[in-house]
Amino acid sequence: MKAEKYIKPPLGLIPRQAHDYQRIQDIKEAMIRYINAHMDIPTEWLEEWGEFMRKYPNADFQLFKVKVNKIKHCNICNKEDENLNELILDGTDDIYDLDVCDKCYDLYSSDYFSPEKIDNLFNGE
Ligand SMILES: [Zn+2]
Questions:
Q1: Would you say residue 45 lies in a domain?
Q2: CA of 116 to the centre of ligand 1 (A)
Q3: Which end of the chain is more exposed for a tag (fewer CB within 10 A), N or C?
Q4: pLDDT tens digits for 55-97?
């Protein structure tokens, strides 16, 4: 921290992609409501939907997700576990948002790990 007085910057703008992803979600929910009411989906929505599909091929455009009983694994020790805990670790370049077993949660949820140590943990060192 510098000695100069910190001046809080003014409120910025939501990144365009985040805004678009929210819009995709909104269109999706509206389409599902129309489908459930047996109503035709307005052409404008479908056109906008198609534009987003071209712009963001990796976004989630599935209208109906099939629930699959997937076996979950701890992101650290790889143990099979149904009840995983969310653990967020702060590395030097990345924030690791993990699902971990109780044991790993106890081990790594403390603040005693430096960002370098956390990076090493995920680079297998
Ligand atoms: Zn574990």
A1: yes
A2: 20
A3: N
A4: 998 888 887 765 556 678 898 888 888 889 999 888 888 888 8
Residue 109: CB partners within 8 Å, gap ≥ 6? 85, 87
Q: What is the CA angle 112-86-58, rounded to 5?
A: 120
* Domain contains 4: no
What is the 60 CA–ligand 1 centroid distance (Å)? 29
pLDDT given for residue 50 in this prediction: 95
What's the 89 CA to ligand 1 centre distance in angstroms? Answer: 14
Are 120 and 74 contained in the same domain?
yes
Could you tell me the distance, in angstroms and rounded to a whole number, from the CA of residue 72 to the centre of ligand 1? 11
Q: What is the pTM of this model?
A: 0.45
pLDDT of residue 3 exceeding 70 = no
Q: 103 Cβ partners below 8 Å, 6+ apart?
A: 77, 79
Structure tokens at 22: 């929210």
